[in-house]
Write a structure and sequence with these properties.
mainly alpha; Arc Repressor Mutant, subunit A; Tetracycline Repressor, domain 2
């Protein structure tokens, strides 16, 4: 990414006595998204929160989209900071995927806006380097490592987006949705819906949580079969 030249960056304190910086703007943007959701991230509101002229944000970021990429990369850094892959490639990929998924679901208002973005920034670069390294160390060619990393990261981000979206639903909505498995599907007759009737109890249990752990294990099983 091309950074904004440092000569254009503000070094004088704002009217609130704060000296602007790249990190301060990102942290403030994250706070606004926590409080107001994605609609809370505007240059005008950000300027007010910083106690600075909104146009000063453009000394650090080209536009709001550039800022969103920085927020996404900051979130990546939170789950990556202490990650060190071990020698077991399956365990390493499982931990990496679980960390990514957990971090995004823990920040649903941010992840619904950032999970599908490509940042090109340092934390994302490190994730890709680590993921490809794990796969190549497992014995996959460069071509296959790229293909399987693509599948791995999209699987992880896709489930994270789905689970994060569920976390942003109005209070009580998830309970109402879960109840449908008992009030509708569990009562369908075996004569007309034999498969649902046979699996109704299991559906009511498994559909209440995220399917990511099971999907990740299936992916890792398939990866191991390909490796062998």
């Amino acid at each position: 990414m091309t950074r904004v030249p440092t000569t254009r960056r503000r070094r004088r304190p704002t009217k609130n006595g704060v000296v602007l910086s790249h990190d301060l703007i990102v942290k403030t943007a994250i706070r606004l998204m926590h409080e107001h959701g994605s609609e809370g991230l505007s240059v005008r509101r950000l300027g007010l929160a910083l106690g600075a002229d909104p146009s000063s944000v453009y000394r650090y970021f080209r536009d709001t989209d550039d800022l969103i990429r920085a927020v996404a990369d900051d979130l990546i850094g939170q789950y990556l900071s202490d990650f060190v892959p071990g020698p077991d490639h399956r365990a390493a990929l499982r931990e990496l995927g679980t960390r990514i998924h957990s971090a995004l679901v823990a920040e649903p208002r941010i992840s619904v806006l950032t999970a599908s973005r490509v940042t090109g920034r340092p934390h994302e670069i490190r994730v890709i380097e680590l993921g490809l390294g794990i796969l190549r160390h497992a014995g996959f060619s460069a071509r296959d490592a790229a293909r399987y990393y693509h599948a791995f990261i999209d699987l992880t981000l896709g489930f994270a987006s789905l689970d994060a979206s569920a976390a942003t639903l109005a209070h009580g909505t998830d309970e109402s949705d879960d109840a449908v498995w008992g009030t509708v599907y569990a009562r369908l007759p075996a004569g007309t819906h034999p498969n649902i009737a046979a699996c109704a109890g299991s559906l009511a249990t498994t559909m209440r949580g995220s399917a990511y752990p099971a999907a990740l294990d299936l992916f890792l099983d398939g990866l191991e079969a390909r490796r062998r």
